[in-house]
Amino acid sequence: MSAKVIIVTNQKGGCGKTTLAMNVAGVIGKDKKVLLIDGDPQGSASRWAASSTDEAPFPTAVMSLANINDKVHREIKKYVEDYEYIVVDCPPAIDNKFTGSALLIANLALVPIIPSPTDLWAAIGIQKLISNVGEINENLNARLVANMCQTNASISKEALELISEFDFPKTKTNIYQRTAYRQSAAFGGTVMDLDNQKAKEEISDLVKEIMDIIN
Q1: Is 121 exposed, middle or buried (CB count within 10 Å of its CB: 0-12, 13-18, 19+)?
Q2: Domain parsing of the chain, residue ranges
Q3: Which CATH superfamily is domain 4-214 in?
Q4: pLDDT in tens, 59-110
Q5: What is the CA angle 191-84-13, rounded to 5?
């Protein structure tokens, strides 16, 4: 068994990166052996998992590697035989060596973006980094994930045109702004534990897409 490595990254904060990483990892972790690596110095993923109860612990193992920078791929390699999937929540900075190092052994990079022109312009740097590492890591796939979309508002034509200029495609599944995502952080779980059918369907559909890409 050698784990598939999924990293969630964007140089811009506030795009819902940790929320996406935790929900994806938690859903896969319901029936697979998953390690979640917290690479963000703010430790949001670790705090999220720690908010769960002893009766309903977060469904993955969680480890912080936030203070390891350019050699994080060596640390991750130590765990690939022990898990089926490793999900990495990267720090929100393009100049941070952590992300470039994690990409070296990733099978899939998910880039959550709020579908607005300013947020898309800000993601250009991460596209360059992924493209550069992709020349070294031939197993690396990448997908944009339209995140925190406004309900009842279609992604603007301008934003869709900008998305089409990226080197890698957008997932078919869009993730919408729903209170369920904030609630899942508050009690240390995922939207699957809440009574929000649309949020459950979105995350389930996204996880199915992820599985199709990396398997």
Answers
A1: exposed
A2: 4-214
A3: P-loop containing nucleotide triphosphate hydrolases (3.40.50.300)
A4: 999 999 998 888 999 999 999 999 999 999 999 876 679 999 999 999 999 9
A5: 50
What would the two tokens of residue 47 be? Answer: 């705090």
H-type alpha helices, 108-156: 117-122, 124-134
Q: What is the pLDDT of residues 117-166, one digit of tens each?
A: 888 888 888 999 999 999 999 999 999 999 998 876 667 677 777 888 88
Of residues 63, 67, 76, the one with CA closest to residue 4: 76
Strand (E) or helix (H) holding 112: strand 108-113
Find out whether 117 and 158 touch, Cβ atoms under 8 Å: yes
Name the packing angle between helices 17-28 and 197-214 (round to 10°): 80
Tokens found for residue 190: 């995922």
Q: Report the predicted TM-score, pTM, of the whole model to 2 decimal places.
A: 0.95
Round to whole Å and give the CA distance between 5 and 153. 33
